[in-house]
Input
Amino acid sequence: MPATGYGASLAGVALGTFPNVKDIQIGGLEVEMKEVACVTDANKIPTKLPNKVREGDIVLTMVYDAEGQALYGQLRQYAKGHTKDNFTLRDSTASVHAGLGYVAKVGELTIDTDNEEVYKVTLTPEKEWDFSPAG
Output
């Protein structure tokens, strides 16, 4: 049976559980590649070497309803204050992404044709998200 997104949860130690999460995107890892070329290279094709590894953001789409508005206000204050929190994202298979991070963005408040208001929250890791697979 394929895994679904149902049953996923996100919480901060200080911020508590995030209610009404509609969508979660986990950025993953990206390796920056540097190209190195020398004038003596006969074929002029540079060599690629791995350099920095960057951890991606967690981007949430949140339902903007009466329950979520208090969290919306708290997230705005965390972003303004550059406040860190220890976040834990548990997916539907019980795998975990966790670590210290910042609220990097709160906004893009929109209303769609089904009369549902949503907003985006971007969580940026201080360094990296620790990953623990289910099992």
Q: What stands out?
A: The two ends are 17 Å apart (CA to CA). The first strand starts at residue 9 and ends at 12. The mean pLDDT is 89.
